[in-house]
Amino acid sequence: MSQLGQYKTPGELKDEDKWFKFFTKKQLVIAIVVLIIDWNIAVIFNKIHLIVIGITLDVFITIVMAIITLLPMPANKHIFGGGLPLYRIAYRILIRKLFNKHIYTTMYEEEIKENKK
Question: Could you tell me the pTM of the whole model?
């Protein structure tokens, strides 16, 4: 707020519904999916009598997903998506890594020599 020309966006203009003043609908859906995954991991590890390892893995997954879901990228890191939630940035990176197809062309030595002439 100390910089000239930067103001907070009014709540009516933001496209988000905060539930219980802490999280949005998307964050709630992500939390439910993570809890379902955690429950399945706990059941599987309970069947092989390693419930302590299963619960430890569940807690680790829940903490990582809570950090990714609830925390935004700092606003001063504008090159890395400042102000965006970390789950959006992680989604963009995942899509770019999985579906980014590069087409590389090579020139043979004869074509290089012809182009130089």
Answer: 0.62
